Amino acid sequence: MRLVFTTDDYIYAGRPRPGFPVILGDDMAPARPFHDYLHDNLLGRGKTLDVKTWEAYGRRLWDFARYLHTNGLTWDQPFIAHGQSVVRIYRDWQAQDLKLEPATINDRLKTVTHFYEWALDKRLIQHLPFGYEDKKVSGIEHDLRHVTGGQAVFSRPNVLLDEWDKEPVFLTGAQIKLARESIRSMSQRLLLDLMVRVGLRSIEARTFPLKYVVDPATCAHWKPGMMIDVRLDPRDMDIKFKKPRVVHIPYSLMQDMYQYTLFERNRLLKEGLEARALILTTYGQPYSKDSARKVMHDIGQRLGFPIRPLMLRHSYAIHTLLLLRNRPDFKGEPLMYVRDRLGHKNVQTTMIYLKQIERLAGGEALAMMEEFDRMFAVRTTLLTQSVCDPSAEQKH
C-alpha cells in the first residue's frame, strides 16, 4: 500500500489539482473507500478545503489504512463492542507501542472518525465503531459566565484521548531567553520571535510579508513599549482557515524587523530574485515547513531541551494568558484576547491553555509570569495598542 500525490496532469472540474493524495493498494489501483472519502472531502465539497491541508488528510488516513493492511484487518471489520473495533485497536497501538503524544494520536483519529461518519452517511456501514461523549470544560473567565455559566460542554468521539494529561509542551521564560541569546542569525531570531512573542503559526511566521514592516520612527505616536496593531490578510500571506485577524507586535520587534530589511535581508536576497516574505534563509528563499522545524530542532539540540514551532506558539498563549489573568487593570477578557490573537475558530480551542495553567503551582506560575514580563515588557505593552499609517504621519 502506497501514498502518492497527483501532478498538474490530474484534472478535476476543469482545473489541475496537483498535490491531491491518492492511497494505492497492492494492485496500484486507488484503495477504496479511502480514495472515495478523500475525493469527496477534499474536492467534492462545494467549498474545497485548503490545498495545504490535503497532505495532512492523506497521510493520516494512509497511516490508518496501512496499519489495517499490515495487520490483516479490514476497515469495516465486525465488532461486538466499541472497545474491540479496529479504530480502538489502532489507537491503543499508537499510544502503547509507539508511545506517541495524545495530540498526535488525536490528529489522526479525528480524520479516521470523520472517515467513518462519511461512510455511515454513504450507507457503507450500519454502525459507527465508536460512540460519543460529552466533555465539560470549567474555569472560563468571569466575563463569559453569563453565556456559559463558567463551563462549556461539547460532544466528541469517545475514542479520542485527553490531550493534556502530560506536562504542558511549552518553554519557560528562561528557556526562551536562552534560545534567543543563542541565535546569531537575525532571520532565525525573527522566525522564533514571531511565534513566541506574537503567537503566529509556523506557516504565518514563514510567510509574514515584507510589506507589513515599517520604520516605527516614522509614526510620531508610536513609542517604545507599545504594541502595534498589524492586520494579517490571507491575500498577503498563508493563514489557516484564510481568516484575517489582528495581531499585536511589540515596538521593539517591529524595530528589529525594520533593521533586518535594511541589512541582513538585503545581503541574503539573491540578485534578480523577489520574495514577498520578510524572513529569508541563507539561500535567499522563504523558509519551508521542514527548514523552519530543523532550525528550531537544531537550536534545541545545542541547548539541551526540545524546541518545535508549535511549542513557541503554545508558549505565547500560556504566558500571555497567565499574565492577563493576573492583571486587574486589563480591560478585557483574557481568554478572548488570546483566542483572537491566535486566530482560533472558537474559544473551546483556547481553553486548553487554562487547564495547562491550572497544573502550575502558584509560586511557579508567579515566577514564570514575572520572568516573561521582564523579558518582553508585556505588562506595559498589552495596555497600549496602536496603528499607524506612515505616509499619513509624514504629511503632518
Counting H and I runs of at least 4 residues, what is the number of helices?
Answer: 18
For the record, the count of structural domains works out to 2
Estimate the mean pLDDT confidence: 84
Helix content percent band: 40-55%
Give the CATH level 1 class of the largest domain.
Mainly Alpha
- The CATH superfamily of the largest domain is identified as Intergrase catalytic core
With strands numbered from the N-terminus, the spatial order across the biggest sheet is 8-7-9
Give me the Rg, rounded: 23 Å
Residue runs with pLDDT of under 50 for 5 or more positions: 139-149, 390-396
CATH architecture call of the largest domain: Orthogonal Bundle
What string gives the helices and strands in order?
Answer: EEEEHHHHEHEHHHEEHHHHHHHHHEH
Beta-strand segment tally: 9
Q: Estimate the global geometry from the Cα principal axes.
A: globular
What about the largest sheet? 3 strands, mixed
Structural class: mainly alpha
Tell me the span between the first and last alpha carbons: 67 Å
Quote the CATH topology of the largest domain: hpI Integrase, Chain A
